[in-house]
Amino acid sequence: MYVYGPVPSRRLGISLGVSPIPPKVCSYTCVYCQLGRTTRMQTTRESFYPKEDILAAIENQTPQEKPDYITFVGDGEPTLCQDLGWLIRKT
After folding, report:
1. Were both Cys, which of 14, 35, 63, 76 would link to 67 (CB 3.0–4.6 Å)?
2. Are 61 and 3 in contact (CB under 8 A)?
3. Confidence class of residue 62 from pLDDT cuts 50, 70 and 90?
């Protein structure tokens, strides 16, 4: 699952969450992480999933109403996604 929501947020309005990485992939192993221990520690960016599939999931989740914000998050470090810039430009 790449997309979840839309989620009502007092700060952002309607936010759609997008997770472009697998769970617990991170470049750190912070003791205070709410997700627990990192299971796949890495610093190399890569395309974890086909970028077109993620974009299609975003478009299918919001056919009638556009969210106020699209929030790229993850169960780890979302900036490890090599396609993050492409996804931001397309959304």
Report:
1. 14
2. yes
3. low
